[in-house]
């Protein structure tokens, strides 16, 4: 009798334990599904403060002219590289897992959701600020190779400081791995050069509209190099993307061929890097976490950017040269440094977010981010947009969103 009672009690505890774990998991699931909505709502509340009511300091230029180099208000606290497809949500940290075991699963899930929402909002804001600062610097100093080298150098410095202060463990990497990552780094560097070249020639909104055609290059290159056959639905989602980009290009006020083909070249290089990483690295990138893979890629991208800069443009980013142009040296250097910081920050946040959500969720969030950047840049720079141009941009972005949703059944690289 006593043994039967003990067994019954144990079975009851087991049932209660399973029920508690099931409920904890369902809460976490429901919370994670609503991350994109939370981030979008948070951003919409702060967007006006980013663009509206901005003081517009001007750079003084010799000869009486004035160079507009407006500085938006600073934030008050507020893998563009190959990434591994993450098939499922990353488990909660050990502390959160322990809290869940003690019955605090809902609180732990809400805390994780709040962190993730803050990261997405910061990802969007850093991307907005990067595009604004970068456009201002490129208009005043139209040297995309020099700006690219500066941005990659700034990112490399941050990475070495991160390792030196043990904010993240330094990687152990073999020469064979470096040899395989090197061509990907070259593609990353050239993709950044062409993006800067496009931003210097056309409106920020138009560059990002063209870059919305990345799924087209992904599908074509995956079919060619990886023998991946897209479904009819995926092919159908490419129609509004290509048609929207074409319509926006035909009606774009700032259109010129250098800016257009530079953005297209950036798409081709970035997606070639992503696709070829699967073929070249295989599973070897598993030896590196996402942050260190991005860090190695950044440092290896910086190394060839220096000789390319010297060959294409010479040494332009010097006090003597900048003073000879009549530009305000201090303002220009501050904006260039802030652009470099935002450039490195938003790319690293992209990795951190991808480690916490599914690839489909990350892809959808990235699509929303592009919409936010386009709207913010149009408002800040007062870019003229015709109804037909807006229709083309909307169709392209709608196609990207549809493509992201259709990839639910098949993991997608970010």
UniProtKB/TrEMBL annotation:
The Gene Ontology CC terms held by the record are: chloroplast membrane
Q: How does it sit in the membrane?
A: Multi-pass membrane protein
Q: Which GO terms describe its biological process?
A: monocarboxylic acid transport
Question: Domain named Sugar phosphate transporter: which ranges?
Answer: 115-404
Keyword match Transit peptide: yes
GO molecular function terms attached to this record: carboxylic acid transmembrane transporter activity; organophosphate ester transmembrane transporter activity
UniProt keyword terms in alphabetical order: Chloroplast, Membrane, Plastid, Transit peptide, Transmembrane, Transmembrane helix, Transport
Q: Where does it live in the cell?
A: Plastid, Chloroplast membrane
Q: Does the keyword Transmembrane helix apply?
A: yes
InterPro entries on file: EmrE-like, Sugar_P_trans_dom, Tpt_PEP_transl, TPT_transporter
Membrane-traversing stretches: 116-133, 145-165, 291-312
PANTHER family named in the record: SOLUTE CARRIER FAMILY 35
Return the protein name: Sugar phosphate transporter domain-containing protein
Organism of this sequence: Oryza meyeriana var. granulata
